[in-house]
Structures are given as structure tokens and as C-alpha cells.
Amino acid sequence: MSFRKCSCGFKWESREDFLADPKISIVGYQVNFEHLREGFFLFNHLEGGCYTTLSIHAAEFIDLYSGKIFQDRLTGSFECAGQCLHQSDLSPCPAQCECAYVREVVGLVKNWSKRSAA
To answer: How many CA atoms lie within 13 A of 22 on its CB side?
Structure first.
């Protein structure tokens, strides 16, 4: 079973193949404040004429993070810069917020080493 299949028919056999594909780029993160693992990472597939945006649950990438996970969500507080409220903002969260670890995962995915274009 493959990791993902695009609407254009292209398949990635593993998560690592997907992340290393130079024609895949993360373009957004859609938060689910109640269940962070159920938020979505949004990727564009730029293969030939395909410009599909694929949404993949954050849960499929959470294991990439091994750091501290804060217990309290600070959304809307003085400490919150509001990155999670803006889907295309992929910057890390400086707050000691429950959501910060997912944003760290976004950074890991965004900076994943890409293989050479074929």
C-alpha cells in the first residue's frame, strides 16, 4: 500500500518518498484546536500540469518530533502571536503553547531534504 496517491495518479510509496519529492511543497497548516493531530498539513503537487493541493492529517507526521509538548493552549492570549490562525503562516511558534510542537513539525517537513529532480 502506498503512502499517498494524487488525483493525477502519481503515487508515493512512503512518507519519506513524499517529503523528499522536489515537486511537493508544504503550503499551509490548517489547525484543529480541539484535536491537534487531526489538523491538516497542506501540500502542493507541482508535477507536469498537476497543481493539486493534498491535505494530510498532522498525525501522520507527529512522530518526527521528539521535543517538549506544552500542556496549555495559549490561543488568543497575550503570549500568542496567532500563527495558527493563518493557514499559510508556517513560522515556528515562540510561545510555550500546546500548539507549538505541531508548528515545529511543520518546520521539519518544510526543511526536509529534497532529492534531485529527475
So the answer is: 6
- Assessment of whether the complete model's pTM goes beyond 0.85: yes
Domains of the chain, by residue range, sit at 14-110
Which residues are within 8 A (CB) of 26 and not within 5 positions of it... i.e. 6 or more apart? 41, 42, 43, 90, 106, 109, 110
Could you tell me which residues come within 8 angstroms of residue 106 by beta carbon, excluding any fewer than 6 positions away?
26, 29, 41, 90, 92
Residues whose CB is less than 8 angstroms from the CB of residue 56 and which lie 6 or more positions away in sequence, other chains included = 4, 40, 41, 43
What would the pLDDT profile of 2-24 be if each residue is shown by its tens digit? 999 999 999 999 999 999 999 99
Beta bridge partners of 56: 41
Q: Could you report the per-residue pLDDT of 52-76, keeping only the tens digit for each?
A: 999 999 999 999 999 999 999 999 9
